[in-house]
Amino acid sequence: MSDRILPTVTDLSRPFWEGGLAGELRFQRCTACGHLRYPIDTICPRCLDAGYAWEAVSGTGTILAFGTFRRAYRASWEDRVPYAVAIIQTTEGPRLIVDVVEADPDELHVDDPVEFVFEPVTEAGIAIPHARPVRVQGDPTT
Amino acid sequence: MAWKRAAIAGVGASRQGKLPGETAMSLATEAFRDALDDAGIAKDEVDGLLTMPGTTSPEGPKHYLALGEHLGIDPKVTGSLSMGGATAGVLIQQAALAIDAGMANVVACVFGDAAKTGGSKFDASAGGGDSWGIWGMFGNAANSAMGARRHMALYGTTSEQLGWVAVNGRRNAARNPLAVMREPITIEDHQASRPIVEPLHLLDCCLITDGGVCVIVTSPERARDAKHPPVSIWGMGQGHTLQNMGTPDWWYLPHQQDCISRAYRMAGVGPRDIDVAQLYDNFTIAVLFWLEHAGFVPRGESGPFVEGGTRIALDGELPLNTAGGNLSESYMQGWLHVVEGVRQVRGEAGDRQVAGAERCLVTGRGMTLNTASCLVLGPDR
Ligand SMILES: [Zn+2]
Known about the structure:
The complex is a heterodimer of chains A (142) and B (381). Chain A has one helix and eight strands, in the order αββββββββ. Chain A is mainly beta. A five-stranded antiparallel sheet of chain A has the order 6-5-4-7-8. Chain A has a three-stranded antiparallel sheet with strand order 2-1-3. In chain A, a hairpin with a 4-residue loop joins strand 5 and strand 6 (95-100). Chain A starts with 13 loop residues before the first helix and ends in a 9-residue tail after the last strand. Chain B has a single domain (7-119, 207-379), classed as Thiolase/Chalcone synthase (Peroxisomal Thiolase, Chain A, domain 1), CATH 3.40.47. Chain B contains twelve helices and ten strands. Strand 4 (60-69) of chain A pairs antiparallel with strand 5 of chain B.
């Protein structure tokens, strides 16, 4: 039995977790004031309205900050060390914390551009978002 | 004009460290006795009891109830609060307000925890709602590591500069009989200590310890009749960001700046009036943020300020964490920072006394860096 922590998917959060299966990062947009929000919640923290619609965003952003883990706190992360966990500033505004994949943490820098990639968790019917550095096309050094 | 409408008449601490056989309750009790003795105030005079449950307190939010029964107190004012490292400051503020309003006259603010012996886990996944553990973010160091990383990227702050905060804490702890860690350390030791969440190393992190602390808050009039000269509350402040990552500069914790500005205004002082500071140091980087938030240095300049350790030493321009702090004295979640602030203002800190210390800034912060509180302490006159 893996000790990996999986999300608790609820009716409220399901569109976020299922969005990944379609390759989409989705946030809630308040239908009253237009505020795009994360974390997922039942009301808008700006105007308190309960109306919202899920919206796919670009799935791009930058690394606001990150920390590097060289040892695993859980067995399920042992094959991942060393790895970085970052606060991602998304292009559209909300910030979220995810791990950075396909990257040597020692090569990462604050404000580096990233894109979201999605890891399907078949048995749960969801996909987990991760960040990956954006490689500039034609530049072998990046 | 400083506020000065309540004062600290007594401070107490239990033994600190690894104390098998003790509990959160027994350590809180030991500290309560010590504080009453320090104040020269009898238990029967205590008419307020405000508490912070320890990580090993089974009572949770009903902690005040269990402690009140144990200590034999029927208070006029009571309650328990859990705001992490901001709690000590917030409870002392609530005590001061209750006293100023005439609702109580002698309020004991109490904390105890057997975190070391009880094996409290501080490496659980961070974050609320969808646990950040989904993305491999574990341990209390992670949030602070991220703040440190961005501070380094923007301002050129280095790990060695963080190390000077640790070296300073240990140097002061060596002069403090209560401190748990008194063996001197060097910058080389800091650099060689194992990574926790980079850029933070082991010696950037606070201890985990057993212990208890109590602070007796009372009216200025009552405090003048206590055993020691009163330490007056000149100003107090809070600042909170309850929305994680709610703004682009969340990582910089601007609410801590607001917290201190509010206290300065209430005290009628500014950063240049502060003689000594006890800045909450769950991690070394926290002290750098506080130095900027308190206006001791401009934004981004805290690293060079602490480098070399001379400006922040006991005989420096701004002596910091003079008892050793969370890093080297004991991890009492900021409660001992208040105790040391009181001792410095009283002038009774012995080998580590800062000459001429009158005004002390004490700060605290907690949860996922959402909460902050501070006190400006000074003489009664
Ligand atoms: Zn809204």
